[in-house]
């Protein structure tokens, strides 16, 4: 039968087919309309690659085929929107309002198809879909020797492709100046070259690219230019020792000069957005700058924004409020007053915290009346070392945070330190796309696509148990159930799925929790040692500064 669901957010009607079956196909032809560019061509390539990876026996574009998938533009659908409809017998039409819409439509088709035991059964989802949130970003924290700094670039590119299929349309990175002596530092040059490769990969699948910054600089900065420390009783505002005081003339000159030079590094890529950060890194507590979020910070950001716009005329400026008023110092109120007087230079306010969402923008309005973005903490929350235990899904927490904020959000940038929070990234991206979806529904679609529809129930239970045991000091007996469930599910999987990194980080997390419970909280034994070492290899984190340097394992 057919059912129609009306989205209360987007106001569009989405149709899909339920209760019917679709025949397996052994050969697929992918046809791309001629008036398309690189993003649509990459959509066709990725679609073909994803089907072949999961179903190696399926022939792609080899003579007469069982199924033809037509990818085409239809400007009447609207920007980033897509439709999936049945054409004449043996044809499925995926149309995008623009080329990004084509890749998002291809993603929906892939995610709702079936690859059980390597056999391809096309998905039954049909209808039209349009994103609720304009900014559906991800922040790759490219620092400290983590996955994004050290994984082979081919793995990074593949990961970016997978995020695009889920609707991600912005990628932010960071150039960690505190790690380098200057732009001529060989390590800095390598970092910049890598960032540009990552940015080009993102643009090739329709993403816009952003970089962050504030008043930090290189580690060779003269000590007389450094900031006055800021109040930081919670130890969350960050300080790598090279935050400058913009009230000092010499430091102000250096900040402007180095920011201009940083913008020049990306002229050949073209930046689309800047995200300014008040803390971690950033901040100055001198008499002229404090309270930082109300005085020194917006003033400096406005100057740096002008430099950025002189280089990239259409660049968007996103102003983060991370760790504002912790403790209270009038930063939110001060920023609101600043933006009342200085209008037109910022485009978005980004807000979030380690715990609940900040109350000020929810209760008193967003400073400057600007669109509001969130910054979900999907990496470090509640575990240390982050990533060191494997996958860290927490769909219930993300559902709670979304319910607090979704009616006021225009999107956001989840903070990613690595691939171990892949499930959390997909949950966020899909909430940005359609806030009416539950995180439970999103997790089920993820499990069905990445693993198998045959194990959705089992692995959904595993995910709930892993979240319940997120606190390392409170792992319960249900850890044994989770490990049993994941072992039972594994027998239904193809070898390539069992060996995939997504399955392994989930499996290893269940195994580690089970072992910790068995050991009454102690980290000991060869099973744990092997599990931790495998995670380190998956993350390419052998030289990592912060994760997944797991706790020492006793013999």
Structure notes:
The protein is of the alpha/beta class and 555 residues long. Helix content is 38%, strand content 14%. It has helices at residues 38-54, 99-111, 147-150, 153-165, 186-204, 249-265, 296-311, 331-341, 359-363, 395-405, 422-433, 439-450, 456-468, 478-490, 495-498, 501-518, 526-539, and strands at 2-6, 13-17, 27-32, 59-60, 67-73, 82-86, 91-96, 127-129, 135-140, 170-173, 208-213, 273-276, 316-320, 348-351, 372-374, 409-412, 415-416. A hairpin with a 6-residue loop joins β1 (2-6) and β2. The longest helix has 19 residues, at 186-204. The protein starts with a strand and ends in a 16-residue tail after the last helix.
Q: Profile the largest sheet.
A: 8 strands, parallel, barrel
What helical percentage do the residues reach? 25-40%
Question: Which whole number gives the mean pLDDT?
Answer: 92
> What is the radius of gyration computed over CA atoms, rounded to a whole number of angstroms?
24 Å
Q: Total number of helical segments?
A: 17
Total number of beta strands: 17
Give the DSSP E fraction (strand runs of 2 or more residues). 5-15%
**Largest beta sheet: strand ordering:** 9-10-11-12-13-14-15-16
Low-confidence stretches: 1-21
How far apart the termini lie comes to: 59 Å
Specify the overall morphology. Answer: globular
Structural class estimated from helices and strands: alpha/beta
């Amino acid at each position: 039968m057919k059912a129609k669901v009306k989205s209360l957010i987007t106001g569009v009607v989405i149709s899909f087919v339920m209760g019917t079956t679709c025949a397996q196909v052994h050969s697929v032809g992918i046809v791309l309309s001629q008036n398309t560019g690189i993003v649509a061509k990459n959509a066709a390539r990725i679609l073909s690659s994803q089907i072949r990876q999961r179903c190696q026996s399926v022939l792609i574009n080899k003579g007469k085929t069982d199924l033809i998938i037509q990818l085409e533009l239809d400007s009447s659908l609207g920007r980033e929107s897509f439709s999936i409809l049945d054409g004449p017998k043996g044809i499925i039409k995926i149309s995008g309002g623009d080329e990004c819409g084509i890749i998002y439509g291809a993603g929906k088709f892939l995610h709702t198809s079936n690859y059980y035991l390597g056999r391809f059964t096309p998905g039954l989802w049909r209808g039209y879909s349009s994103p609720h949130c304009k900014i559906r970003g991800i922040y790759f924290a490219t620092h400290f020797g983590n996955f994004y700094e050290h994984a082979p670039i081919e793995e990074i590119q593949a990961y970016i492709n997978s995020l695009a299929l889920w609707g991600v349309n912005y990628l932010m990175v960071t150039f960690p100046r505190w790690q380098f002596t200057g732009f001529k530092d060989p390590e800095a040059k390598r970092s910049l070259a890598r960032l540009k490769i990552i940015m080009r990969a993102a643009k090739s699948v329709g993403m816009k690219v952003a970089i962050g910054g504030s008043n930090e600089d290189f580690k060779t900065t003269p000590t007389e230019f450094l900031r006055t420390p800021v109040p930081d009783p919670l130890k969350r505002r960050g300080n790598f020792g090279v935050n400058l005081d913009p009230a000092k003339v010499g430091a102000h000159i250096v900040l402007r000069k180095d920011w201009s030079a940083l913008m020049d590094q990306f002229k050949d890529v073209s930046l689309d957005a800047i995200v300014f950060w008040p803390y971690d890194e950033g901040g100055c507590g001198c008499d002229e700058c404090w309270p930082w979020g109300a005085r020194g910070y917006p003033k400096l950001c406005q100057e740096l924004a002008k430099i950025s716009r002189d280089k990239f005329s259409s660049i968007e400026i996103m102003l983060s409020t991370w760790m504002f008023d912790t403790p209270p110092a009038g930063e939110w109120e001060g920023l609101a007053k600043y933006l009342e007087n200085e209008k037109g230079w910022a485009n978005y306010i980004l807000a979030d915290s380690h715990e609940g969402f900040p109350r000020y923008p929810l209760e008193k309005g967003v400073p400057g009346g600007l669109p509001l973005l969130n910054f979900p903490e999907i990496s470090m929350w509640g575990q240390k070392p982050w990533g060191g235990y494997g996958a860290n899904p927490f769909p219930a927490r993300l559902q709670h945070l979304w319910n607090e904020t979704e009616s006021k959000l225009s999107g956001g940038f989840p903070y990613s330190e690595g691939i171990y929070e892949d499930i959390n990234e997909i949950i966020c991206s899909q909430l940005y796309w359609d806030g009416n979806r539950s995180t439970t529904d999103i997790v089920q679609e993820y499990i069905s696509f990445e693993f198998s529809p045959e194990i959705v129930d089992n692995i959904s239970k595993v995910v709930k148990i892993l979240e319940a045991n997120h606190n390392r000091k409170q792992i319960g007996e249900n850890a044994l159930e989770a490990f049993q469930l994941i072992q039972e599910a594994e027998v239904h999987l193809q070898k390539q799925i069992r060996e995939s990194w997504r399955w392994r980080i989930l499996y290893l997390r269940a195994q580690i929790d089970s072992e910790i419970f068995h050991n009454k909280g102690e980290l000991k034994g060869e099973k744990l040692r092997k599990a931790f070492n495998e995670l380190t290899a998956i993350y390419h984190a052998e030289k990592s500064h912060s994760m997944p340097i797991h706790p020492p394992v006793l013999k």
